[in-house]
Design a protein that fits this description.
The chain is mainly alpha-helical. The chain has one domain: Nucleotidyltransferases  domain 2 (Four Helix Bundle (Hemerythrin (Met), subunit A), Up-down Bundle). The protein contains 3 helices and 2 strands; from the N terminus they run H-H-E-E-H. The chain has a two-stranded antiparallel ribbon. Strand 1 and strand 2 form a beta hairpin. Helix 2 runs antiparallel to helix 3. The chain is elongated, with a radius of gyration of 20 Å.
């Protein structure tokens, strides 16, 4: 095997895999935080009445937080490294 014959190359390859893993995990944790925030907004602020939420402002905020969390998770999955406003059109 080519990698086993060159320890420096193998070390670099392993470090690169670890780096990519932790990059993804960091963003997956961030995406999970967005989704938890969306859930908290709905539970704490958007009160239900007869099975429907009373205040559409908080439903909109929760929806935006969840949407952004999904885009962050997609960025991690596809390895997209970009800053700024996220859009589903990138995928």
């Amino acid at each position: 095997m080519l990698l086993l014959e060159k320890p420096k190359l193998l070390t670099f390859y392993i470090l690169d895999l670890i780096k990519r893993y932790f990059y993804r995990m960091k963003h997956i944790i961030e995406a999970h935080r967005y989704l938890e925030n969306a859930k908290e907004i709905l539970i704490d602020k958007a009160q239900k009445e007869d099975g429907y939420y009373k205040d559409k402002k908080y439903v909109k905020l929760a929806g935006h937080a969840a949407y952004t969390g999904i885009l962050v998770a997609l960025d991690a999955y596809f390895g997209i490294k970009s800053k700024g406003r996220k859009s589903v059109d990138r995928y």
